[in-house]
Structures are given as structure tokens and as C-alpha cells.
Amino acid sequence: MNNNPDHFIDLNAYPLTPSGTPEWHQLVNEHGQSLRENGASIMKGVIKEDILNRMTAEADSVVKQSYACRETHTPFLDHEDKSLPKDHPRRQLQATSLNSIPYDIISPSHALSQLYNWDPLKEFLSAVLGHKLYKMADPMAALTINVMGNEQNHGWHYDESQVTITLMIQKPDFGGIFECIPNLRHEDNDQYSKLADVLNGDEKGILSLPVEPGDILIFAGFYSLHRVTPTIGSKTRYVATLCYKDQPGVMNSPEVQQTFYGRVNQG
Ligand SMILES: O=C(O)CCC(=O)C(=O)O
Ligand SMILES: [Fe+2]
């Protein structure tokens, strides 16, 4: 099996290696501009179809070991602040139901792990973001596959990291749409008035991003409220999150690990 991610990618459309060529710089500028202007940029069809089939089979091979995360959380991913009025966004609990496959059960021989550890991807994303990125040191959260079967969903939230990178591996039959409100946290000066409207069902400003299998989404998840609508049908939705940080050695706390993976692994 060829484990060099050079072969995972259509290098004509996405000249990620060698770095520093005029085509590489053009790609960096294109995605950097889209991220700054829209809070998101999609690398459409970057991973080849046969590699997606391999990633799906490799996810299927470990999915039985995934952790069933059934959570309620505020949009800030924390617990309810009961000192606030009942209708405050920090008291509007969102339900999330998904299974997570952490990095420590993904084999290093799996295509997804090879891609995550491929330096040209990290170098390209660093250039898009304008600062050096490091692989996260967390043995579970560095690379996770979010698994959604029939009628699972991810409630409205902001991410803890400034930027999130996801790869859609397999799409469900219906639903499982990634919806977001770009830069809501920036624009909603007090952070709560527009947010409260959305949590109360106001659909104004909600975008559905056209993410398809093979697409890498670069997304300013700390500023842009987002959710995944309920999945429908027997085909599992697999979306990987690739975590890179702006400093080396970053780990999640034991509490956060326990919540998302049902156990603690501090390495
Ligand atoms: O499943 C997705 O498309 C997005 C996942 C997400 O928002 C997250 O893991 O924080
Ligand atoms: Fe998120």
C-alpha cells in the first residue's frame, strides 16, 4: 500500500508540494483571502476518490471502538451558568450526539494518519494562516473522526481553537449539513444578542456550506457559530478534524478528554 500522501492528492489542482513555487503561493493567497473574508475556505475535491474509499474502510475497521458522546453544552462548549437569566445564551443548552474515533485508535498505517503527519499539508496550512503550526500533542484530540449514524447531530457551538481543519470522508444519505454564521462572535459586539436570536430559531444569516467527500474545510470555528444538522439514513457520516496549534506541546485537559472520548490519555 502506498503511504506517501503525494499520491492522495491531485497535485495538478492542488500543488501542495514542492512548496514555494508560484502555483503554491497562488493557492496560499486564494485560501488565505477566503478565510479572512468569509471565515472559511474549502479545498474542493483535494483527496482522490480511491483514497476516500480506503479512509472509509479504515474508519469502518475501528468504528466499534468509538466513544458514544451524548452531550449537552452551551454554544461556548461549557456548562450552564445558573447565575444568569434563564433565556441567556450561556444557559441555552444544545444537544450533541455523535461517536468519536480518537487518534490513539487510528493506526499510523491508516491513510488519514499519514495525511495528518504529512509536512507539506502542515506547511501549506501554516502559510494560509500566516503563522507556524505544530501538530497537537494530545494523543486523542490531535486527529479525530466524528462519526454520525442515523439521526445524530452536532449542536450549535464555537470551537475552542481559532481555526479548525476538517476533511469529509463519507457523506450520509441525507442531512448532516454543516451550517454556520461566519464571524458572528466578531460582529455580535456584546456576543449575545444575535446569538440569542439564532438559538431561538432565527435563520437569518445561516449559511449551508457545500462540503462534499474529499473536501478539506479551513474554518475560523472560534468566531463562526456552527452546527451539523441531523443525519438521516443508514450511511455513516465520517468527518475528520485535524488539529494543529500555534505552539508545540498543546494538550487538552483530562476533563475535556473525558467528555469527548470517555477516558483520559495524557500520553
Ligand atoms: O462534523 C463537522 O463537519 C464539524 C465538526 C465540528 O464542528 C467540531 O468537531 O467541532
Ligand atoms: Fe466545531
Word description of this protein:
The protein is of the alpha+beta class and 267 residues long. The chain has a single domain (40-105, 133-261), classed as q2cbj1_9rhob like domain (Jelly Rolls, Sandwich). It is built from seven helices and 15 strands. The chain has helices spanning 22-38, 49-62, 111-116, 119-129, 184-187, 193-199, 254-261, and strands at residues 40-43, 67-73, 94-101, 134-135, 143-148, 154-157, 164-170, 174-175, 178-181, 207-208, 216-219, 225-228, 231-232, 237-242, 244-245. The protein has a seven-stranded antiparallel sheet. It has a four-stranded antiparallel sheet with strand order 6-12-9-10, with no helix packed on it. Helix 1 (22-38) packs across helix 4 (119-129). It is globular. The chain starts with 21 loop residues before the first helix and ends in a 6-residue tail after the last helix. The mean pLDDT is 94. The structure holds 2-oxoglutaric acid and fe (ii) ion (FE2).
Question: What would the keywords be for this entry?
Answer:
267 residues, four-stranded antiparallel beta sheet, 7 helices, globular, binds fe (ii) ion
CATH superfamily: q2cbj1_9rhob like domain
**How many structural domains in the coordinates?**
1
The helix-and-strand class reads alpha+beta
Topology, number of strands: 15
Give the fraction of residues assigned to helices.
25-40%
Strand line-up in the sheet with most strands = 1-11-7-14-5-3-2
Oligomeric state = single chain
What would CATH call the architecture?
Sandwich
Strand content: 15-25%
- What characteristic shape results from the CA principal axes? globular
The set of bound ligands, ions and cofactors reads: 2-oxoglutaric acid, fe (ii) ion
**Radius of gyration, taken over Cα atoms and rounded to an integer in Å:** 18 Å
Low-confidence stretches: none
Order of helices and strands: HEHEEHHEEEEEEHHEEEEEEH
